[in-house]
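Lab notebook, bench 4. Continuing the backlog of folding jobs that were queued last week. Each job is logged with the same field layout so the records can be merged later without manual cleanup. Today's entry covers DUF1795 domain-containing protein, a 175-residue chain. Filled in by technician R.K.

JOB TYPE: sequence-to-structure
TARGET: DUF1795 domain-containing protein
LENGTH: 175
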Amino acid sequence: MKKIILLFLLLFNSIFSFSQNSEKGIWKSSYSELRLKFDENWQLITPQLDSERKTMIALTDSKDHSSITVKITDDVPKEQLSDEAYNDAVKEQMLKADAENKFLVQEVIDFKEKKFTVQIFLMKTKFGDFALTCYTYRDGRKVKSIQLAYPRSLVSNPGKELPEKIKKVLSDMNI
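JOB STATUS: finished
OUTPUT FIELD FOLLOWS
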């Protein structure tokens, strides 16, 4: 019985990393190029998932409930699921969460030397009116997604700008 418990704990620890990949203000994946650098206003949400097949890490600012979530997962070939169909599914999911949610814009941008599709929404949340910016990159092997959520009041035009504190984390990110 002790061997089974030990085996379970080792397996659990290899799948869920409880900040073992982080130095003060830095988190690095053991399986991908993902690296986040952040200041003392951001806290890591635990547990983080870091495995060969999937990585998920989230930061939150408890003062205003802003958050940054980064996820890297296996993709399906684009012949099976086009970028358009994938982006439509993301949009549908965000809009059906609350009837008052609104889609603002979708565009393709260069980010970290890759072409990311960016979708921006206005969302009703338990913390009030939020803007949600979703970055998505697909190559048929991996999907890399970044979700940036922040109070609508932090920027004058959420379709065109991001809060400085989020821009700082993005600028220091490797993905």
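OBSERVATION: The chain has one domain: 2-171.
SIGNED: R.K.
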